[in-house]
Design goal:
This protein is α/β, with parallel strands linked by helices and about 200 residues long. About 35% of the residues lie in helices and about 10% in strands. It is built from 6 helices and 4 strands. It has a 4-stranded parallel β-sheet, sandwiched between helices. Strand 3, helix 5 and strand 4 form a beta-alpha-beta unit. Helix 2 packs across helix 5. It starts with 7 loop residues before the first helix and ends with a helix.
Length: about 200
């Protein structure tokens, strides 16, 4: 992954890796000037369009690898991700649902925790998708979305949240930016929400 010089201190020294390599300009290149629109979905579409509408042709290979990990580890029942990791986690949830519908494979993931998330990549088309691309709620397992009101990419988190069943999706706002909260009190409060979610599927 190519990191712009002004972000080198955030990502650390190379080599830097990404979960899924985009065919074309990376959407992240436009993060500094993230578009503002009336809805999170419109903002995401504008950001994707500004980046040249990239696709992720490697998504099939990535999903095959992740599903293989799930199938070889009976103890895994949930997934957690931050930023692009949350996008990949959400993509995996969609892939499990697709495999259930088309192949009869029983999904392994029962819940998910998303920090500063981003809407998923469709496991077949390799395109970023949002709730308005679906007739029904695409993510139905319980989810916990940890977002920051000061995150310049909050629309990404909200677009992901909007893809989830509102009856089983929890939203926790830590009030800060695009980061994983480090303060003990905030972490303790998030832990309570996560434990309740895990207990609901145990």
């Amino acid at each position: 992954m190519h990191v712009p010089p002004e972000f080198a201190g955030f990502f650390g020294p190379p080599p830097n890796y990404t979960f899924m390599e985009a065919n074309g300009p990376a959407i992240q290149a436009n993060m500094r000037d993230f578009p503002r629109r009336d809805t999170p979905e419109e903002a995401i579409k504008a950001a994707v369009q500004a980046a040249g509408d990239p696709s992720f042709s490697c998504v099939t290979e990535v999903m095959d690898r992740l599903v293989g990990i799930l199938d070889s580890n009976d103890d895994i029942g949930g997934v957690i991700g931050f930023s692009e990791g949350a996008q990949t986690a959400a993509s995996l949830i969609l892939e499990e649902r697709r495999r259930e519908s088309e192949l009869g494979r029983i999904p392994r993931l029962k819940c998910a925790i998303m920090f500063g998330g981003w809407p998923p990549v469709h496991p077949v088309t390799g395109k970023v998708v949002t709730a308005d691309d679906y007739y029904e709620v695409p993510i139905t397992i319980p989810t916990c979305h940890v977002v920051g009101a000061s995150d310049p990419f909050l629309d990404g988190s909200m677009a992901l949240y909007n893809m989830c069943d509102p009856d089983t999706a929890d939203l926790f706002d830590h009030g800060a930016g695009h980061l994983i909260p480090r303060k003990k009190q905030t972490a303790d409060e998030i832990a309570v929400v996560v434990r309740e979610m895990i207990n609901s599927v145990a």
